[in-house]
C-alpha cells in the first residue's frame, strides 16, 4: 500500500455564501506527481491556497505526513501559485539570496537550486529580461530553496511556448526521484496526462474523480463527463 504524504477530508470553502470548494476529499501518494485537473474557475486555486495556509477552510481537515496540518509544516512545503514572486531588477542569484536571508537558509542552496532548474548560466542577467519559461523555472527554484517534501505548482505552464512546456514537464517528472512529491494544477489535459501519475478532476468545487492514470485512458471524455456533472450556474470559484 502506497504511503500518503497528504490527506484531505471534507474540505469546504465559501465566499459570500457562494461555495468555492465543496466537501473535497483527496489523497496524494508520496514521491508521485498528482495532477489536479479542472476548468478555469473550478476551485483548484482555492483548494491549493488552503493546503498552503493562504486561506482558512470553513470546515474539513488537512493532514500532512500523517499529522493534522499546522503552519509549521510550511517549512516542508514549496509553493508556486500564480506568477513567480520575482524582483525584476535582480539577477536569479540575487532573487534567491533575498529568500535565503529572509528564511535563514544556507546560501549554498542558491547554486544547488539553480542547477536543478538549469539556470546556472544566467550570470548578471536580470530577471526582468528572462523569458516566461526562465521566470517559471526561477519561481520553482525559489520554491525549492527550503528542500520541500511537497511542491505545489498552480498552472506552471501558463504563457509558455512548446519548448518551455517540454522543459518544465521534464523538470517536474524528475522531482519524485529526488524525494519531492508534486501537486500540479492545470486545465490542460495533455499536460497532466504526460506528467502526472495520479489525477483528480474538480469542477464546480466538487472533486468528481480521483485515481491513477491508466494507459489508453480517454482523459478528455472523463474530464468532460465530470465537468458536465458538476457544473453549476451562477457559482463563483477560484
UniProtKB/TrEMBL annotation:
<dbReference type="InterPro" id="IPR027417">
    <property type="entry name" value="P-loop_NTPase"/>
</dbReference>
<dbReference type="Pfam" id="PF00005">
    <property type="entry name" value="ABC_tran"/>
</dbReference>
<dbReference type="InterPro" id="IPR003439">
    <property type="entry name" value="ABC_transporter-like_ATP-bd"/>
</dbReference>
<dbReference type="InterPro" id="IPR022501">
    <property type="entry name" value="ABC_Gallidermin_ATP-bd"/>
</dbReference>
<dbReference type="GO" id="GO:0005524">
    <property type="term" value="F:ATP binding"/>
</dbReference>
<protein>
    <submittedName>
        <fullName>ABC-2 type transport system ATP-binding protein</fullName>
    </submittedName>
</protein>
<feature type="domain" description="ABC transporter">
    <location>
        <begin position="6"/>
        <end position="229"/>
    </location>
</feature>
<keyword id="KW-0067">ATP-binding</keyword>
<keyword id="KW-0813">Transport</keyword>
<dbReference type="InterPro" id="IPR003593">
    <property type="entry name" value="AAA+_ATPase"/>
</dbReference>
<keyword id="KW-0547">Nucleotide-binding</keyword>
<comment type="similarity">
    <text>Belongs to the ABC transporter superfamily.</text>
</comment>
Amino acid at each position: 500500500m502506497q504511503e500518503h504524504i497528504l490527506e484531505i477530508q471534507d474540505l469546504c470553502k465559501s465566499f459570500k455564501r457562494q461555495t468555492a470548494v465543496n466537501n473535497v476529499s483527496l489523497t496524494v501518494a508520496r514521491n508521485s506527481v498528482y495532477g489536479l485537473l479542472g476548468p478555469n474557475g473550478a476551485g483548484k486555486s482555492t483548494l491549493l491556497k488552503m493546503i498552503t495556509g493562504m486561506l482558512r477552510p470553513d470546515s474539513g481537515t488537512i493532514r500532512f505526513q500523517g499529522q493534522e496540518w499546522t503552519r509549521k509544516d510550511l517549512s516542508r512545503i514549496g509553493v508556486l501559485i500564480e506568477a513567480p514572486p520575482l524582483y525584476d531588477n535582480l539577477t536569479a542569484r540575487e532573487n534567491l539570496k533575498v529568500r535565503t536571508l529572509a528564511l535563514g537558509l544556507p546560501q549554498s542552496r542558491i547554486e544547488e537550486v539553480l542547477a536543478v532548474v538549469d539556470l546556472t548560466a544566467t550570470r548578471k542577467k536580470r530577471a526582468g529580461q528572462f523569458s516566461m519559461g526562465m521566470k517559471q523555472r526561477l519561481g520553482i527554484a525559489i520554491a525549492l530553496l527550503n528542500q520541500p517534501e511537497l511542491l505545489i505548482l498552480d498552472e506552471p505552464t501558463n504563457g509558455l511556448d512548446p519548448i518551455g512546456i517540454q522543459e518544465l514537464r521534464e523538470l517536474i517528472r524528475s522531482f519524485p526521484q529526488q524525494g519531492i512529491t508534486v501537486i500540479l494544477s492545470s486545465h490542460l489535459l495533455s499536460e497532466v496526462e504526460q506528467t502526472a501519475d495520479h489525477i483528480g478532476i474538480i469542477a464546480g468545487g466538487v472533486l468528481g474523480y480521483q485515481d491513477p492514470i491508466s494507459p489508453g485512458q480517454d482523459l478528455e471524455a472523463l474530464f468532460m463527463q465530470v465537468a458536465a456533472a458538476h457544473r453549476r450556474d451562477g457559482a463563483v470559484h477560484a
